[in-house]
User: Which sequence fits this backbone?
């Protein structure tokens, strides 16, 4: 089960997609009908990693890997995201939790 909010980390991209809640996931066809790459992942606010290759028909259902992302790695991903957007202070980014990082990403949308 996904704990919202969450972000999508695309395999070969630095830019992240922020999803605030299940309602946004279900209502945005671009999110759940998209043809994800094998290495694209969804990271939820608990740091759980979900694959995006599980389909119920055409609808993508995030599937937990039961693995969590290391906070240091999550910070690196978010720093790269903000750098790709041209944020001036991305290198100074810090957080105490994955949930805090996701709120930072969500605040820029």
Assistant:
């Amino acid at each position: 089960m996904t704990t919202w909010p969450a972000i999508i980390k695309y395999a070969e991209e630095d830019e992240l997609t922020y999803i605030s809640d299940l309602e946004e996931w279900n209502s945005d066809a671009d999110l759940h009908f998209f043809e994800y790459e094998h290495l694209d992942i969804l990271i939820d606010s608990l740091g759980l990693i979900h694959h995006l290759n599980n389909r119920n028909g055409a609808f993508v259902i995030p599937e937990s890997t039961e693995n969590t992302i290391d906070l240091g790695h999550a910070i690196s991903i978010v720093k790269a995201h903000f750098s790709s957007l041209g944020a001036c202070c991305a290198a100074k980014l810090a957080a105490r939790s994955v949930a805090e990082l996701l709120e930072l990403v969500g605040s820029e949308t």
